[in-house]
Amino acid sequence: MTLRFHNISKTFGYQKVLDRVSYAFGTGLYALHGSNGIGKSTLLSILAGILEPDAGEIEVAGHSLHSAPLEAKARLSYVPDKCPIYPFMTGCELLQFVARAKGTLICPDVEALLESFALGAYLNTRFGQMSLGTQKKTMLASAWIGQPSVMLMDESSNGLDLATRDVLIARIRQMREKALILISTHDAEFAQSTGAEVLPFSKLHGPLMRSHECRRGPPAHERAAGHCCIDPENGAVE
Ligand SMILES: Nc1ncnc2c1ncn2[C@@H]1O[C@H](COP(=O)(O)OP(=O)(O)OP(=O)(O)O)[C@@H](O)[C@H]1O
C-alpha cells in the first residue's frame, strides 16, 4: 500500500473531528469530498505529519510516520491551503529547503514545472511579498521535489489563474500512475478535469464502514483500485 492509515482520531477541545478514520490506498488520484468543517484539512495535515493525531497509525510507502518519520516524510509531499512559510524566505530558499530535507536535488522535471508556472521571475522574492497565487504555485512546485510516493493537496486549485490551473491539471494527471495523490477540494470542475475518483469523507469513518460496507466487503473494482475495509470483528485493515 502507498498510504495506509488506521483508526485516526482527533479532538479539538470538546469537538471530536476525526473518529477512528481508516483507509488504505495504492497509487491513483482521489478527491476527498465533504461538507465544510467535516475534517478534510485536519486529516491531510495529520497524514502529512504536521498535526499529531490523538490516536491511530499512518504508513507512507511502508514507513511508519510515528516510528520512522524521516523515511516516511521523505516520500510524501503536502501542499496546505494557506501558506505557512516564514515570510522572509524566498521561493528559491523554500525549494532548496525542501530538497535538502528530502536528501535530494531540484531535478530538471521540477525546473520544467517552475518554468510552466512562470515562476522564474519570482524565485528571489520573499513569500511575504508574493501574491497568494505565486505563493501557492511555489508550494505546488515544491511538492514535485524528490519524486514523492504520496502527494497530499489541500484546495490545490484555490487562487490559481486559468493557465496555471491547466498546467496543474496536466501534471496531476501524469503523476497518478506513479504516486497516490489525495486532494481535498470543493472545486468539482477541477477534480473532474484531473480525472480524480471522488471519495466521500464519510467513507473513511470506521463505524460507518463497519455497518454499511465491510460486512459485505467493497465491490471487486474498488478492491483492485487499492481500497480497503476494516474487519468488523477485530478492526484489522484488509
Ligand atoms: N487548530 C484547531 N483548533 C480548534 N479547532 C480546529 C482546529 N483546526 C480545525 N478545527 C476545527 O475542526 C473542524 C474541521 O476543520 P477542517 O478544517 O479540518 O474541516 P474541512 O473539512 O477541511 O473544512 P473546509 O471544507 O471548510 O475546508 C472544524 O470545526 C474546525 O473549526
UniProtKB/TrEMBL annotation:
This is ABC transporter ATP-binding protein. InterPro entries: AAA+_ATPase, ABC_transporter-like_ATP-bd, ABC_Transporter_VariousFunc, P-loop_NTPase. Gene3D superfamilies: P-loop containing nucleotide triphosphate hydrolases. Keywords: ATP-binding, Cell membrane, Membrane, Nucleotide-binding, Transport. PANTHER family: ABC TRANSPORTER ATP-BINDING PROTEIN ALBC-RELATED. Pfam families: ABC_tran. Residues 3-228 form the ABC transporter domain. One of its GO terms (molecular function) is ATP binding. PROSITE patterns: ABC_TRANSPORTER_2.
